[in-house]
TrEMBL record:
PROSITE patterns: SUBTILASE, SUBTILASE_SER. Residues 40-364, 420-502 form the Peptidase S8/S53 domain. Gene3D superfamilies: 2.60.40.2310, 3.50.30.30, Peptidase S8/S53 domain. Transmembrane segments: none annotated. Keywords: Hydrolase, Protease, Serine protease, Signal. Residues 572-657 form the Subtilisin-like protease fibronectin type-III domain. This is Subtilisin-like protease. It comes from Spirodela intermedia. Belongs to the peptidase S8 family. Pfam families: fn3_6, Peptidase_S8. The active site is at residues 49, 119, 460.
Length: 660
């Protein structure tokens, strides 16, 4: 048992599945993971969030067979709100003791697993909603809505209570929901909530997710919405699959024509209150339209919002153009062209400005655990600390921390628990999915509109995309561990956009692994990755031991006594450093060759350079030697990649080097 403060967590979702290659204009091809994995048939995906709107068409059970016999969950109704589940929505529970203990109050009508916020319904339907034709938001984005695993069964675990914006999701409720989901029998847990990254032993989400992974459950979490600053990523425990947010190739575009129109269109600056609230104020004042300008921090990020009057939201570049027009015109007027839905936009994806960035802000010292991740430190006269990461847990700290910790002191531990997370990126901007009918699409008190579907943006929306993919992989490969599923998703990702060029950030500068992790998810390749970096629970326990956790703290995660072995510190090194890793064959027999793009200023050598696999499940080890060969510019990171290839499969892992 561990005692720690009952902290609050924050909520961190259709074109996206076609953008990810699972269909093409409604056609599902033979090589689609949807067809191979039978749309996620009978995998059970749980969702920790604000509950569920059970009447949504996304959770209809038409055509589904009996509920899997292994399911032990139930549908929990409140005192005044009966909740009816079916063969699709097979579970709905609520957890509020932590919320109440923290001072929250609930009326009898509020004690229910029903979603009165919309966030939980949106995320759950993104992960595994059924095919629903004629879905749209106020007539835009019209098409067939669906989740990543449409034939999976779903269960809602309500752990977040009003006021959501203030962080109404508490550790005690999150832990209780994890334990219940484990007992109920879920296969995947989607968790679009989080808090500022901190010591794992006092983080209820980290502890609960460890218990879930121990029981074979893949846990997928949002990376947080506090970007674009570095070191802001959330949910960084290595057993969690952490997701960043990027765009897709669909936009809802509206134009403001300057110099031809009327004076009752008001230009407002982004910030303080929501864009929809600005539009409502303009409407009440007699205005007929609103143009919302963006600051430099937003770059090219322009999300869709459900405005109450004609509106245009501008990128930073277009905002400067508008400011110049207003300041130079004696009679500035405009008219707003009705918005249209445009698909096939380029470049896509690019990283959302809000998507939290690495490196992992948690920074206790640890040693290398060879089977867990690779992280080496080399001390040279130029004070070069090199951090090599070969999937899945790459953990370089911030450069300032490296300067303090490694240049000014010794002996130097071989690694620090800081990471390149998020692990992966997926669509998280203007995602259309099911919504509650308890509130309006803007979630403002004045919004009396009701919609079946809504467009939302956030890593909360990208997270369930990966949860859906994890559900498909679980159906296709029921014997795969959570680590194998995570590896398959990460090592098959791409770092290119739909122009064939490197993924950009919201400022249209080249993004880095600190933004997208291993890259943008490619579900069809993840189902046949060739090789995986698999892990055991002992690997994770050794990871905690390397953080110098006490046996009691480690037992909090493991649920049983565990004696940490002696930990040996590695001094500063002046010679090349060698680390060892292991990969498992999950495909046909084959021969894989190492291909390395070394980070600038380093030399990377892999031995053996060829691995031969004769059977499924065979594991082979390899060694990576890394050394500095030049003196790159200090206070920056350089990046590379290691790929194992048999000519068909390309198993790629980022390499990151921090120069101090």
């Amino acid at each position: 048992m561990a005692v720690f403060p009952n902290k609050k967590h924050e909520l961190h979702t259709t074109r996206s599945w076609e953008f990810l290659g699972l269909e093409n204009e409604g056609t599902v091809y033979e090589d689609s993971i949807w067809r191979k994995a039978r749309l996620g048939e009978d995998t059970i995906i749980g969702n920790l969030d604000t509950g569920v709107w059970p009447e949504s068409a996304s959770f209809n059970d038409e055509g589904l067979g009996p509920i899997p016999s292994r399911w032990k969950g139930t549908c929990e109704s409140g005192p005044s709100d009966p909740i009816h589940c079916n063969r699709k929505l097979i579970g709905a529970r609520f957890f509020n003791k932590g919320y109440v203990a923290a001072g929250g109050t609930l009326t009898a009508s509020q004690i229910t697993s029903r979603d009165t916020n919309g966030h939980g319904t949106h995320t759950l339907s993104t992960a595994a909603g059924r095919f629903v034709p004629d879905a749209s938001i106020l007539g835009f984005g019209n098409g067939t809505a669906k989740g990543g695993a449409p034939s999976a069964r779903v269960a809602a675990y309500k752990v977040c209570w009003e006021p959501i914006d203030d962080g109404g999701c508490f550790d005690a409720d999150i832990l209780a929901a994890f334990d219940q989901a484990i007992e109920d029998g879920v296969d995947v847990l989607s968790v679009s909530i989080g808090q500022r990254a901190e010591n794992y032993s006092s983080d209820g989400l980290a502890i609960g997710s460890f218990h879930a992974v121990k029981n074979g459950i893949t846990v997928v979490c949002s990376g947080g919405n506090t970007g674009p600053s570095w070191g802001t990523v959330r949910n960084v425990a290595p057993w969690i699959l952490t997701v960043g947010a990027s765009t897709m190739d669909r936009e809802f575009i509206s134009y403001a024509i300057l110099g031809n129109g009327e004076r009752k269109i008001v230009a407002c600056r982004f910030g303080n209150v929501s864009s929809v609230e600005k539009g409502q104020t303009v409407l009440l004042a007699g205005g007929v339209g609103v143009i919302v300008t963006s600051p430099a921090t937003l770059g090219n990020h322009v999300p869709a919002n459900p405005h109450v009057l004609p509106a245009v939201e501008l990128s930073y570049g277009n905002s400067l153009f508008l400011d110049n027009y207003i300041n130079s015109s004696t009679n500035p007027v405009a008219r707003i062209i009705p918005p249209t839905t445009v698909v096939g936009t380029k470049p896509a994806p690019f990283m959302a400005y809000f998507s939290s960035r690495g490196p992992n802000p948690v920074d206790p010292e640890i040693l290398k655990v060879p089977s867990l991740f690779i992280c080496v430190s080399i001390y040279l006269s130029i004070h070069l600390s090199i951090y090599l990461s070969l999937f899945p847990f790459y953990h370089p700290p911030s450069l300032e921390l490296m300067k303090r910790q490694y240049v000014n002191s010794f002996p130097v531990p071989i690694c620090a628990l800081n990471g390149l997370q998020p692990d992966i990126t997926a669509p998280g901007v203007s995602v259309l999915a099911a919504f509650t009918e308890a509130v309006g699409p803007s979630d403002n008190f004045f919004d009396d509109r009701r919609v079946r579907f809504n467009v939302l943006s956030g890593t909360s929306m990208s997270c369930p995309h990966i949860s859906g993919v994890a559900g498909l992989l679980k159906t296709l490969h029921p014997d795969w561990s959570p680590a194998a599923i995570k590896s398959a998703i990460m090592t098959t990702a791409t770092t290119d956009d739909n122009l064939g060029k490197p993924i950009l950030d919201s400022f249209f500068l080249t993004a880095t692994p600190f933004s997208y992790g291993s890259g943008h998810v490619r579900p069809n390749l993840a189902m046949d990755p060739g090789l995986v970096y698999d892990l055991t629970m002992e690997d994770y326990l050794m990871f905690l031991c390397a953080l110098r956790y006490t046996s009691g703290q480690v037992a909090t995660f493991y649920g049983a006594p565990f004696a940490c072995p002696p930990i040996r510190l590695v001094p500063r090194l002046s010679a090349p450093t060698i680390v060892t890793r292991k990969v498992k064959n999950v495909g046909s027999p084959g021969t894989y060759t190492a291909q390395v793009t070394a980070p600038s200023g380093t030399l990377v050598n892999v031995t053996p350079a060829t691995l031969v696999f004769n059977k499924y499940g065979q594991e082979e080890a390899f060694k990576v030697t890394i050394e500095a060969v030049t003196g790159p510019q200090a206070s920056r990171y350089v990046y590379g990649v290691l790929t194992w290839s048999d000519g068909v499969h390309n198993v790629s892992s980022p390499i990151v080097v921090g120069i101090v």
